């Protein structure tokens, strides 16, 4: 690691924080009609900064939605090329009354910087740009070639990103990608995230009588759709928390002993303290960490039927609905799993009701990179060195669609270097970034980019 | 049957209909604060009419809520004494825009009289009073001694009736009771209703994490309360539609062959035509009619958990709730059954969630009168004669609490002579009374009261 770079980041810390505060002050709420021009303004802020740093070919690319910023620095003839992805749009700040300070006037309290976007993702984007700046100012070059892609639609589903990347496949070709849009398992615990789950879902409605009917006059003749739905859902999992939909586990990648060790070495959340849940329920044969990180799940996200008001209403409901989503692991194909659940529902719907299924069109495959890959090991070493603590290796039950897109378009490894913490209040009031992670994270990035060149 | 009485009813039909229209014009909506004085006005209307007919001791009794009208005619020394119960309050008329005519200005179309309360219960109350009037005008006396109890709180649960009856047990002592607050299985089909189901219920909420959590980050560790609720509910019934709660059927009165014959002789509804339900699901070993009329049921009336909006929200819900009610048959004690379900829930709640139970305080025992009882047979003969068709004997899955109260306070048989039809739109817009049933019903009552004297 270049001492000069570290010194530059240290000496310029206040300027960098001010830069970040300016970035955070732009209300780039991508979902808001009212803030359309602010979103573009944040894109322009990023483009200007990249130009200032010394990037070439800085472009504000039109996508049909909010623009995306492209830039490149490709001066090395031999070095590998990295692709950095981030996003400059943010979630709405509402409910405003729950913020302790103005969400768009960043404020520092007890070691945290509070603002909408502080952690997700403006703060983490700025850490990369600051490291690029430091290298250019001190060494006159970046350690590796870099392409930068910073979009403005992540918080609204990145609807225009995949078609754009497909159309610009050549331009974005690189040797590896880096994304900092995630977090560590806890404050101060360096974390190497090397896998994400995929995703599929559907909604099922069981139709019974064509209107709610009197439970006294029809109970015993007409099948109760709420009871039928319970029976159907209950059949989808057994008492060992195993999904009983035929074929569900068929294509799951086996969990290697080596990975099991990594997962079980990661700290476990105290669910009783954080959620009031005394008993955990992992799939039989797996620990909680293993299930969370590397086993597929099928969850009921919502369920409703009949009367929900105070007291009683003695009806047999006309229908009952459940919203289901699965988290998938490497090997599982979202379409195949969705098909399997649809077949199961068609097969197992109790008699007397009729099933209507709405397939969810959003889906994602799981992503996993080999934890022994040299680049991953380099990132882990940078993390361990900067935080002074052994890095844990984890996979995450969540899904980040762009990771799968990059993986499938170019099959380059995606290095997920997230510096958030579980207390960052992403998407919620009082979002913040731990300043210690801001500082150490930049050291990690400076070191990692340097190592990438070796 | 007295020919003079029949002639009187026939000759005075228009006057009686006008009387009914006046009664229906009073907006005696018991649930409405705004119509408090209208409710009393309807009580006074009833009291005035009873006085006019020649009843003695006509009282408007204060109950703490809406008043109740008592009257008596006890001139016979030897004849039995009947107790007639009815109610003069009505449901709200909303939504008003769905009515084809003013709900409080009765209007006749295609053989039906349309107005709120036409069938439930002002129309049927007036039929009794008209028959009493006819007897007094033609024979100068009623065929039997009569006590009359017409309340104003039936549509809000008769909360003050039971304490009032308990406090006035002596005054209401009689040999039999007659109630016309129900209906026939279809228009023109004379129906002897000789049993009602009882009722108990509860609400169960399964609590998981203390807030909705991310299904990716917690799926596999934390039990899903919606899935847990499905599993719990699914265990309460088997695939033969038998309730599997231990003890549920223990005290059920056996269904005699004789009764089975009666029930199966009653016409069955065409559920495909009326409700779009192709397949019926009676309990194994019983026909649909038998299950509807004489087997207990356990129904989910409402169920809710998590996200109910458009699209997906990938959460594990914090909790899941189901509202359950049972319809009970003779022999079953509501408290015992509620206890059995509570024990079942406590026993069978899946691990990882905590059950919270709200017991429903309303309950009722089932009511049944021996179909071979002479008074029942007399009523059936009156029905058959007036309608020109063999009377069917049915029991009903619904509950009428006052029937059980009368039965348990005095153990007198309650003769349920209802003249409504399934198309009367009770509690709904365009409530109506079939005028053919109004006319024939009065003949039935005239004949039945006469037969009671014999």
From TrEMBL, chains A, B:
Keyword terms, alphabetized: Hydrolase, Metal-binding, Protease
UniProt GO molecular function: metal ion binding; peptidase activity
GO biological process: proteolysis
Domain of life the protein comes from: Bacteria
Keyword presence, 4Fe-4S: no
Every Peptidase M20 dimerisation domain range: 194-352
InterPro entries reported for this sequence: Cyt/Met_Dipeptidase, Peptidase_M20, Peptidase_M20_dimer
NCBIfam families to which the protein is assigned, alphabetical: PRK07907.1, PRK08201.1, PRK09104.1
Protein name as annotated: Acetylornithine deacetylase/Succinyl-diaminopimelate desuccinylase
Species classification: Bacteria, Bacillati, Bacillota, Bacilli, Bacillales
